[in-house]
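Table S2 (text version). Query chain:
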Amino acid sequence: MKNIQIKASSFFELLKMKDTSMWEIFAQMTDGEEKEIVFLDDEEKILFSYLLPDNLEKLEEDRKQFADEYSEKLSGLN
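Corresponding structure-token output:
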């Protein structure tokens, strides 16, 4: 399995500049092989990681699960 390290601040800034979602980028990276994407802070410390699935169907399931969990967390703040 490949391990990909990404500086989180640069990655999310690029997404904002290009008006693209991380899921679109992840879909482009999907090639039949699982990959571990490790997000790092500016000091190279691990913030979080994501196991990129080997197919688009599983990626879509992950996206929906993420959206549901994010929505639940936001509703809990109100």
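Notes on Table S2: Residues 2-77 form one domain. The first helix runs from residue 8 to 18.
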